């Protein structure tokens, strides 16, 4: 039915997935990739524009990408709301951030961080701890990569709390490893090792 919201989540472990929702007419309603190569769930929200069966397509982004297992989950179909439109915007901003960051172009990192921050603001408004944790971790990754270690530590502290709140062990594990690495480079190796030991205990 036209005007319905379709929301899906693909859980994977650093798989180069490309996800699309395709309408009965063949039009692509939305797409997202795991461009940041993270273990975070890949999420996508679309609003239908026509009646009929819609198709979810999940494939490797590139022919030479390493394959891996994934798990798809779909929320119950419901009439689209303003919250769904906000969610779509936040997802799009985060995906733009993922695609903007380019190690060959240092200026791209600042643009990506701005995309993530704008996405985070919407996730806070929506009260979505999982999506906020995912976006914060991405921003912290770039902050650490560009040497902004104190900022990265602050962002990761919040992200770790959120990962634990929602019970996402994969996200928590990634966050602990990144925190351990950051602390090791900020002159606090003992605390960094403590985070890394926590990560090892989870494996």
Query: What about the largest sheet?
Result: 4 strands, antiparallel
Note the overall shape.
elongated
Tell me the number of strands: 7
Task: Quickly count the helices.
Answer: 6
Element order, helices and strands? EEEEEEEHHHHHH
Helix-strand makeup class: alpha+beta
- Indicate the percent of residues in helices: 40-55%
| Chain-averaged pLDDT | 94
Determine the N-to-C terminus distance.
Answer: 44 Å
Low-confidence stretches: none
Backbone CA Rg = 18 Å
Fold and architecture overview:
The N and C termini lie far apart (44 Å). With 203 residues, this protein is α+β, with helices and mostly antiparallel strands. The chain has helices at residues 82-100, 107-126, 129-145, 149-166, 169-184, 189-202; strands spanning 4-12, 17-22, 28-33, 42-47, 55-60, 70-74, 78-79. Helix 3 (129-145) runs antiparallel to helix 4, helix 3 runs parallel beside helix 5 (169-184) and helix 5 (169-184) packs antiparallel against helix 6. A hairpin with a 5-residue loop joins strand 2 (17-22) and strand 3 (28-33). The model has no long low-confidence stretch (mean pLDDT 94). Helices cover 51% and strands 20% of the residues.
